[in-house]
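Appendix B, example 12.
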Amino acid sequence: MLNRFVIAANEEAFVERAHAALAALAARPGYLRGELTRSLDEPEHWCLLTEWESVGAYRRALGGFDVKMTATPLLAESLMEPCAFETLAAAEPGGQVETKASDRA
C-alpha cells in the first residue's frame, strides 16, 4: 500500500499519528514491512508505504480495532489516488529480476 500525504502545517502531529498507524498495522498478521518517507525535494510531501503478504491480509488488517482507531483516520486523509499496488517483479542487489504472477483474477 502506498498512501501519499501533503502536510503543510502541524508536521509533528502528523508524524506522531503516522508512527501510531504504522505500529498498529505492523502488529497485524500478514504485515511484511512499512516505512514513513518524506520527499527530499518537496518536504511537505510524505508517503506511508506498507507491504503485505497478500491483498487479503491487508484488507483483513483494516478490520483490527487498533487499525480502525489509528491507521484508518490517517489513511482517510491521504491523497485520493490509487494506493494498492502488487509487486510483479523485484531484484535484490546484484541479483536477477524475479517475476510474480498477478493476484488479479
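The chain has one domain: 2-99. The radius of gyration is 15 Å.
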